[in-house]
Structures are given as structure tokens and as C-alpha cells.
Amino acid sequence: MKITAQQIAAYINGTVDGNPDAEVTTFAKIEEGVPGAISFLANPQYEHYIYDTRSSVVLVNTNFQPSQPVAPTLIRVANAYEAVSRLLQLYESMKPRPTGISSMAFIDPSAKVGEGVYIAPFAVVEAGAEVADGVQLHPHATVGANAKIGKDTVLYAGVIVYHDCRVGANCILHAGSVVGADGFGFAPTANGYEKIPQIGIVTIEDNVEIGANTCIDRSTMGTTIIHQGVKLDNLVQIAHNVEVGANTVMSAQVGVAGSCKVGQWCMLGGQVGVAGHITLGNRVNAGAQSGLAGGRVLKQGNCTVMGYPAIEHQNFARSAAAYKNLPELQNRVNHLERELEELRKLCQNK
């Protein structure tokens, strides 16, 4: 399909700087541009690519001022990154959705399956489960007994939603993610560890995306809950009885321990660890590999923290700078101690 720069600009409320009839047939990174491609420039560090790119059209921010001539047609928008996101969503929505139920899928007779679904070979829908309209179950996806999957949700290959769990509408669960495995509950005894049955469920609200091989454990009692709009990256671990607030995002390898409450619009960087039974307020931003173990600042929210234990990011930056100089500081302290000792001896001799 071909579309012109002028048509794109009209869709994303941009203005054309160059040939309005320039045609676009594909997307490309600005450094890998080809004729007929549309690229974008949002980060000034990549500006040098715009002068050599072969892309036909480039999205730029309204205030972009080139330092030399530019060959591609420019479409100026308020936010180039947001604009390309809208275009990619449009492109994705135009792809045909798979439909139909494979004869090699297993659907229990007591399960309820909606209209326009796609159930691939070797997908499983167990007894009493409910699969709403437009759901996609890719190969080896499993919907456990009495589980419910909301409208237009996609379960990619190997996703497992355990019995009784709930997944809302317009969710995406990527390959290998597991919803509703037992929480890590064991009681120490004289003979080892005795398993504590995990009889609760997991509830995932609408418009949630869960990355590949991410695990969300069922609660001991009640529900582990992921509120609407949450985005979890690959290899994230959400333990039992956790509550994650709406529109919170977590990067890869974040671990949230049991019974923790995470507020709305939080952003947790890669490998952040959150201790159990603590509360994070709304809009807590945690830098990569931070360890969040509680405290007044985290509970109040609206803060950016780093380090372990996590502290306010400006204090962390100053502490990190001092840490790099510790050997030199230690030498200076040792030298000062020797001088002080010599002064004491001189004073004593007098």
C-alpha cells in the first residue's frame, strides 16, 4: 500500500516540509533508510543520519532546524516519537487478524467460546473456561479450567493462564508468560518446608501487556491484581498478593516480592527489586538495579530513586561520585592521621 507525505501529515496533524506527494510504502530506522521508507528523528544524537538517509520521508519535531541540506521530505509534528507510534499502530491494525478454530485444538465441551476467535493447533481451553469474542490463542496457549479471557485479547504461543484466573479485554500476553502459578509460600518445619496452598487467583484488567516469560503468581487468598494499562517487560516476576497500579511500567527482570502494593504510573527500570509487604506511592521512578525496601519517600510517591537501598537520585549521584574517589580519600585520611599523630608527639615533648 502506498501513502503520500501529505496524507500522513493529515493523519498525525503535521506539516510537510518538502514534496507533499512523496510516497511511502514501508518503515525503516533512519540509519537504515531506503527509498519509499518513512523514518523518524526524535533523539538529537541521531541527527547526523538525517543528512545521509535514503528514506523518502522523515518525521521530525516541530523545532528541528537542520544544519545542512536535507534530501528527504520532512513532516514536522509536536512529538516525532509519539507520531511514529500512531503510524505503527495504524499499520498494525491494517494487518488481517487470524480467525478460525483448528481441528487440532482442544476445547472442552463445557467451555464457552465467542465469535471471531482464533484458536491455533494444540491450543487448549479447559472445562468451564470462557474465551470472549475476537480472542487469539496461538499454538500451545492454555486457558485453564474456569479461567476467563476478555474480548480481543491475544495469548501468544505457550502462554498459560491457570485455572480460575481472569484476563481482561485488549490484553497481549507474549510467548511463555505464565499467569496464576502458585505463589512462593512455604512454612518451615523440623523436617523441611511445608507447602502453603495458594487458593487465590490472578486478575488482569484491560489493556495490559505482559512480556515473554514473565510470571504473575496467584495469591495465597484473594487475588494478585494487575490494573488496567500496566505494561510488563520480559522476565518480570510478580509474586503472590501483589497489586500493581494502573499504567505502571516495568522493564526486564524486575522482581516484586509478595504482598507489595505498587502505585499508579510508576516506572521501574531493569532488574529493580521491590521488597515484600511495602507500598510504593504513585509515580515512583526507580533506576535500573535499584533495591526498593520501603521508606517514607517511596510511600509518598512522586519521586525518582536509585541505588540499594534506593535513595533520591540526586543524592545517589553525589554518593556515586564520592564512591569513585574512595581510594584517594582513604589515602588522604591516612596521611592526615599520620600528620596528626606527629603533631601530638611534638606537643607531648614540649
Could you provide a short overview of the structure?
The chain is α/β, with parallel strands linked by helices.
Please explain how this structure is put together.
- The protein is α/β, with parallel strands linked by helices.
- The protein has two domains: about 5-95, MurE/MurF, N-terminal domain (Udp-n-acetylmuramoylalanyl-d-glutamate--2,6- Diaminopimelate Ligase, Chain: A, domain 1, 3-Layer(aba) Sandwich); about 100-315, Hexapeptide repeat proteins (UDP N-Acetylglucosamine Acyltransferase, domain 1), CATH 2.160.10.10.
- It is built from five helices and 40 strands.
- The strands form six sheets. The chain has a twelve-stranded mixed β-sheet with strand order 8-11-14-17-20-25-28-31-34-37-39-40.
- Strand 22 and strand 23 (about 190-195) form a beta hairpin.
- The chain is flat.
- The mean pLDDT is about 95.
Helices and strands in order:
Elements (H helix, E strand, L loop, with lengths): L2 E2 H8 L2 E3 L5 E2 L1 E2 L9 E5 L15 E5 L11 E5 L2 H14 L6 E2 L4 E2 L4 E2 L4 E2 L4 E2 L4 E2 L4 E2 L4 E2 L4 E2 L4 E2 L4 E2 L4 E2 L4 E2 L4 E4 L4 E4 L2 E4 L5 E4 L4 E2 L4 E3 L5 E4 L4 E2 L4 E2 L4 E2 L4 E2 L4 E2 L4 E2 L4 E2 L4 E2 L4 E2 L3 E3 L4 E2 L3 H5 L2 E4 L4 E2 H12 L1 H24 L1
Parallel strand pairs: 4-5, 5-6, 6-7, 8-11, 9-12, 10-13, 11-14, 12-15, 13-16, 14-17, 15-18, 16-19, 17-20, 18-21, 19-24, 20-25, 21-26, 24-27, 25-28, 26-29, 27-30, 28-31, 29-32, 30-33, 31-34, 32-35, 33-36, 34-37, 35-38, 37-39
Antiparallel strand pairs: 1-3, 2-7, 22-23, 39-40
